[in-house]
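Predicting holo structure, NAP bound.
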Amino acid sequence: MDIKLRQLGESDIHITPLGLGCWQFSNRIGFAGKFWPSLEEVPSDEIIKVSWEGGINWFDTAEMYGWGASEKCVSHGLQKINAPIESTIIATKWHPIARRASRMLRSIEEQIQRLAPYKISLYQIHSPTSLSSIKTEMEVMADLLKAGIIRSAGVSNYSARQMRNAHAHLEKLGFPLVSNQVHYSLLNRKIERNGILKTAQELGMTIIAYSPLEQGLLTGKFHENPSLIKTRVGWRKYFPLYRPSGLERTKPVIDTLKKIAERYGATPAQVALNWLIHFHGERVVAIPGATRKEQALQNLGTFKFHISEAEMDEIDKVSRKFI
Ligand SMILES: NC(=O)c1ccc[n+]([C@@H]2O[C@H](COP(=O)([O-])OP(=O)(O)OC[C@H]3O[C@@H](n4cnc5c(N)ncnc54)[C@H](OP(=O)(O)O)[C@@H]3O)[C@@H](O)[C@H]2O)c1
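Done. Tokens:
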């Protein structure tokens, strides 16, 4: 499939509008890792294979996803299919909580080993919470960029003010801040209200939308069969949107996605992703995760069609209460 690539921020890196989210490969290690089943149940190699073969050219992982388990899976899965080193883009993250920026140097050495032979194309600060200032973190990022250890620098979960701060410091050191990875889906559109999207557009940064399917809710499967929610291992079941009142509140969005999906012989998830990567233009990309290869395959089907302007507006209208 011929998928039009998009520039990552102001970098020389070009990515597919969807990447593969790899938190799912955490093997239940660490607090965040408990959100998904173990690797015995999540076939990471297969998910990576179908994603790569379907045209996806980038993979989003993090140090804290199973404290290295996910990074190892990404490298393993890609090596198994001989994905070329030069054109495979790896986005990973440094975990800053209760750490100083100087710790980044030790983390990245370990991350490079786990991801080898693949290189880190995008290195992201996972959250703004750190013992160091944003300025100090950006100084370390600039050193990594200068040394050619990473190709580009980004952040995650940063507010509009923090984005500006980080962008300004890195710019002074001669590099662009290319992305902010944030929660963004049709059921969580806060970045349109709190200035994050506007700031990204203004600074030429890419928004990487995480949880773009609201962790499965936008597929419609939990609305169709709410008893499925209890079967999921993580704490999704305790989230307000997953309660009966949440299902009721989100139902009009799901119904609209279903109606539009029927026109294209598509699924609600594909329509939801379609909206996300087109409504605000090329600056928004998304990284749906998958626990089975069929899900990854289905999500790839997003590239087979393009919903119309009128359909985008209809979806916009019905999901405005989530802004
Ligand atoms: N930077 C951050 O702080 C941060 C935070 C969260 C996520 N992320 C990144 O974003 C990625 C994606 O976010 P996410 O995993 O939270 O949410 P998501 O992509 O919205 O949802 C992924 C989950 O939805 C279900 N699913 C996906 N496609 C499906 C399909 N076609 N049909 C049925 N079910 C489907 C699967 O769960 P089940 O099969 O279990 O139902 C899957 O694990 C992560 O992998 C990670 O790389 C980053």
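The two ends are 33 Å apart (CA to CA).
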